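# nightly structure sweep
# worker-07 picked up a monomer target from the shared queue
# config: single-sequence mode, recycle default, output format = structure tokens
# input follows
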Amino acid sequence: MDITRARQIVMEFEGNPEPSEDDVFMYTEALGYLINETKNPEYMMRLGGFYYGEKHFELAEKYYLMADEYNYEPAASGLGYIYYYGRTGEKDYDKAFKYYSKSASLGNPQSEYKVADMYRNGYAVPKDFDRFASIVRGIWNRRQSDGYIQYLTPEIASRMGMIMEHDGKNKEAYDFYKLAKRSLIHRLKTDDFFGNFTIMAMLIDNIHRVHEVFPEEIGFYDLYVLLKTPSSWSIKLFGKEFIVTSAEEDGALIVSCDGKYYRSISDFIAGGTVDDMKLFRVADRIKSVSQVIT
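# output follows
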């Protein structure tokens, strides 16, 4: 292998929607070779990011730390996430605040709102909702001139909704939560990173808390809330009807649809299929979701 061949392997893998185990092996080998030969932190971050997406968090931490030695901003952000969520063991809010702050100082709005979250929750710093709101509003006000902030609309708008809700402005909160939901539905068509589903589940909880969801407004992702109570729901898609049912079995909530069973609501939302189609990929094509009365 040489640098040219390694770069080709990396490019081909990252353009392959369904890589094989051999493809994964060659990809990690190629990135390892590029790291050793070039000492380029971008390759360290790519390999760490791959392992993070695969939930091999110890390996992600290893390569993020390696890239951070070169003061590579994305590595600081990545380390913030690892320590904030305790991906490699116990949560370490002091380390999280250190790395998020470093990344934010280098211009990353994603790390900015995570620093804001730490003020909202009182993690590693005194709880300060006003500081949280000030940071989030500052990011929101820059969205028109920053394409990356526009991409982060689900994250920023959901926090703007929290600010409105805190101020007792539930109508404004609902509008922000709905904006975040619409943007996230669009993102999920092409990006099934597990964190996007976590955000969606939170958004649906928020929407149902601040606003009565009428039958004609119910969509696929509302099942995050609706299936928490054992029940059956009809989904109409491409002229066909599919029944989704949640039921308690041995103290756990099991979801079934189209002859398949899922261990949880989250597993169903992220992995549910009908006619070999992932439901979340076509969420905006679902014509109706209605309760089946038995």
